């Protein structure tokens, strides 16, 4: 029995140094304030969420673009009418369909028309081609009355890729096409698409647009598409926020807009554990690609008061963020004891065995 005091002293020593053996993770705020720290502690305040709530403007060059008159291109089919001269207008016969009497603009941008010869049509507007044909035919036809229309569009297209329901190329015609019209025609897979990451590539430059913000932007106006534009809508399978620590259901949360708030992230994880969590230990950890140049950010929310959720409801989380909820002091204490009690039983049994061996 002489070993019992030794066991008790051993347990007391462990308890007094319990902070060294506390299981799980905790946030050391003191370490974040050192000059050599790779992370910076930022308090979530009304001023911070007001800054975060500022909406980025739509690039002005996209809004300022206005479609020009349609210009003929290779692959277009033209129907050329010379009034009172059906032999020129419908050489295949008036009973044939309009397309059968059409003139295809060849890959080199030219077309052939009787008495006018080979004409360079690509790059001209409909009116410019009409005037050119009128001039050429006037040497053979007295006061020719010429009309030109496009009956088959095949030159100007926009391409679509990604999480659209239909990714067929869309043809641009004489009626300007807006971004919203193109997206409406293609359809969006709303369950799998990253609605905040639409990429519009034009003339070698890529713009990232948030579909959920386009209609809400102040002073919004139609964004017209240009021949050669490319639309890419990414999937949201890599757009995740990780909620860990003292929450009901720790998990990775996939989202598709920029509107996921800290409150929503915690809500999807079942909320903060009312038994084990510390209300003063809610953090959002946001990494940095180059820690040596730009430190990571650790945003801290004091959620002891329910009013703190008003701040959390306006704080937007970003892909890759880790939401960490620390344990309360009593939770740490209980976890220390849960490890000490089995250990104390083992020591007690070992001590008892030693006594019996000595007595024998």
What would a concise description of this structure say?
The chain has 360 residues and is of the alpha+beta class.
Radius of gyration: 36 Å
Helix-residue proportion: 25-40%
How far apart are the first and last residues' alpha carbons, in Å?
14 Å
Largest sheet strand order: 1-15-14-16-12-13
Q: What is the CATH topology classification name of the largest domain?
A: Outer membrane lipoprotein wza fold like
Shape descriptor reads: rod-shaped
* SSE class: alpha+beta
How many strand units? 16
Describe this structure as you would to a colleague.
The chain is 28% helix and 23% strand. With 360 residues, it is of the alpha+beta class. Strand 12 and strand 13 form a beta hairpin. Residues 6-22 have low confidence and may be disordered.
Characteristic terms for this protein:
360 residues; alpha+beta; wza like fold; Outer membrane lipoprotein wza fold like; 6-stranded mixed beta sheet; 5-stranded mixed beta sheet; 11 helices; 28% helix; palmitate; sugar transport; lipoprotein
Write the layout of secondary structure elements.
Layout lengths: L2 H14 L12 H4 L6 E5 L2 H7 L7 H5 L12 E6 L3 H4 L13 E2 L5 E4 L3 E4 L5 H12 L8 E7 L4 E6 L7 E2 L7 H8 L11 E5 L2 E5 L1 H4 L15 E4 L6 E6 L5 E4 L7 H7 L8 E10 L9 E6 L6 H5 L9 E6 L1 H31 L1
Parallel strand pairs: 1-15, 7-11, 12-16
Antiparallel strand pairs: 2-3, 2-6, 4-5, 7-8, 9-10, 9-11, 12-13, 14-15, 14-16
Subcellular location: Cell outer membrane
Pfam family, one: SLBB_2
Family: Belongs to the BexD/CtrA/VexA family.
